[in-house]
Structure formats: C-alpha cells, structure tokens
Design goal:
Distance between the termini: 43 Å
Shape: globular
Number of strands: 18
Helix content: 10-25%
Oligomer: single chain
C-alpha cells in the first residue's frame, strides 16, 4: 500500500487521518470585515479518491445546503479511505440576503471558470476552480429548483458518458436526466477538465423538504460505499424503486394568467390529455383545465399560486433512454 501524502489546500496542510476546517476567503465587506467560507476536509490514513461535495452555489437553494449539512453532522464525510471535501455553502452572500445571485447581480453558475481579475462572482469561481477543484477526483454538486418550481430528485448528466451514467445509477435518485452542460456553469467547467461531476436537483428554493434531503443523503452514502469510502457504521440502503433514465423532456406552459393549482404530484406518471391542474380567476368566473400534452413522468411542478400566460407549469419526460420500457409507476 502506497504512502498517503499530505494535502495542501488554501495554504493549509492536511495530513492523512486528519480533519481540518480551512477558510475560503470570498471578499471583504464595505466595513472591511472578511467573508470566509468554511471548507471541511476529512482524510483517511488509507489511500483513496478525493470527493468534493458542494452546495449553495445559488444562495436561495437551501435544500442542497441542508443535505451537505446532514452529511457532515452525521459523520458521513469521515472516509474509510481517501479524502472528502465539503463546501455546504458557496454563495454566502446570496444565502444571507435570501437571494440567488451575488451582490454584483451575477449568477455564480454562469461565470465559470472565472477570472482572478473579473467581477466578484467571477473571482470566487476562479478561486474555487484553482484552489479546490484540482484536488478532486469526483464532484457531487447539490441544487434545487428555482422560482417556486419544485424539482423531482434527479441526477443530471450529459448523454453518452458511460462513467457518469454508472455513477449516477449508483447514486440511485428516482430519475437520471440527460441534459447538456450549460456554458460557463460549474458542471461545464469541471467537465472540460475531464473531472466527473454529478449534479443533483431536488426541491425548490427557500424550502427544505425531508424527502428530497433523504434522497440526497442516501445517494451520497451509496456512492461512497461504491467507492469503498463509507465507514462500516453506516448502511447504504438500496433505492426503493429502479431509477428512470430520461432522454428528453419538455415544459407545459400556462395558456392563461390566473390562480394556478396542480392536481398531480412530483414523480407521477401521467397520460396524454389527462387533467393535471387548473387555472382560475380571483372572481369565480373563469376556470381552465390544464391537460397533459403527452404521456410521461412529472419532473417539475410549479408551486406558485399565481401564474402568467407562458409560465412553465410542468416539466414532463417525453422519451426514456433506449434500454428502458415506459413503465407507469409513481416514484
């Protein structure tokens, strides 16, 4: 067995078998108070991969923060072998202000890989990509739906990537969704480095859902167990149902403005022309049923009680991966 070398992150040396919390300096406030992000690093004395677990790239996506918090609080991040790096909250500015963006108005997840001389968000992205990411062999990045849209628990990966598909299958979320890497996103920046990254989506902004949290924590345990990193005092339970791999999907949008109420649940399988919600006016004079344009699994439901014409209401699968049969069952 090879000797495990010390790890140096942000100027701090973390020895094998050591736990250390280092400070990722974001910026200073106008008052010159320093804003630091804790980076929690746990190392085993045994050699193994380095896993980076992140959340809170968007400040309003608190369910992801809760997932990583539980991973740390329960000691799941203490590896049997290798190293686990946890960053539960990257966009601390947005978190404090209950806002998605950085104070400069930029979306952190649209400025990667960033620049040492760019905007505040760009500088944070650059520091993450140069100081933390190069140490990782695998990244798990936790997100939620935005704008009151509730995502079913899902792992998003690019199509035709066997390694990512295998890892996503091990994670065991109810859905795997093939989606292209967005330009200047964290996922795309890692992908360009040939660094495998699993993007977990589940729940909605400003909300902590127990079921979503459990999916995130349990999926992480399965992945760590698969890599031989989960300690024996933890059990990685099998998913209750087989993961459904979605090849294509589309949105059903509001034909009218008004009060909106969905009549189906996340993960349901719906049939074409089925009534899945309704839009009314405040005065009891108007009622329009929302019908499914096609059959598929419900991946996202808009939880806003008021919608405008053209708003996205439901995200529905349109095609499953080639090796799957369409089996109507609720996830």
């Amino acid at each position: 067995m090879g000797k495990v070398a010390p790890l140096t992150i942000l100027g701090q040396v973390i020895k094998p078998g050591e736990r250390k919390e280092v400070s990722f300096n974001v910026a200073k406030l106008h008052t010159q108070n320093s804003i630091d992000i804790p980076v929690i690093i746990n190392r085993s004395k045994k050699p193994g991969p380095t896993i980076l677990i992140t959340a809170g790239i968007h400040g309003d996506e608190v369910n992801g923060v809760e997932i990583v918090r539980q991973i740390i609080a329960k000691g799941i991040n203490i590896p049997k072998k290798g190293t686990i790096i946890c960053m539960p909250l990257i966009n601390v500015f947005g978190f404090i202000q209950m806002n998605r963006e950085f104070p400069d108005g930029r979306d952190l997840n649209r400025v990667f890989p960033g620049s040492a001389f760019g905007s505040l968000a760009s500088r944070v992205a650059h520091q993450l990509m140069t100081e933390i990411v190069p140490h990782a062999d695998l990244v798990i990045d936790f997100h939620t739906g935005g704008s009151r849209r509730f995502n079913a628990p899902q792992i998003r990966i690019v199509e035709d990537h066997p390694q990512l598909l295998e890892l996503a299958g091990v994670f065991g979320a109810p859905f795997i969704l093939y989606s292209k890497n967005l330009n200047k996103s964290f996922r795309n920046a890692c992908f360009k480095l040939n660094l495998p990254i699993l993007l977990f989506e589940g729940g909605k902004s400003f909300f902590i859902d127990k079921n979503i949290t459990n999916h995130g924590v349990n999926g992480t345990k399965r992945l760590l167990a698969h890599l031989g990193m989960l300690k024996k005092n933890f059990k990685a339970s099998d998913p209750k149902k087989k993961t459904v791999v979605i090849a294509q999907s589309s949105w059903i949008r509001a034909k009218y403005s008004g009060l909106f109420k969905a009549s189906i649940d996340i993960g349901d399988f719906i049939n074409a022309e089925e009534v899945i919600g309704n839009i009314t006016d405040p005065y009891g004079k108007f009622n329009s049923f929302v019908r499914a344009s096609h059959s598929g699994y419900v991946l996202n439901v808009n939880h806003s009680p008021i919608v405008y014409q053209g708003d996205a209401l439901f995200h529905i699968s349109t095609q499953l991966a080639n090796d799957q049969n369409t089996t109507p069952e609720t996830i």
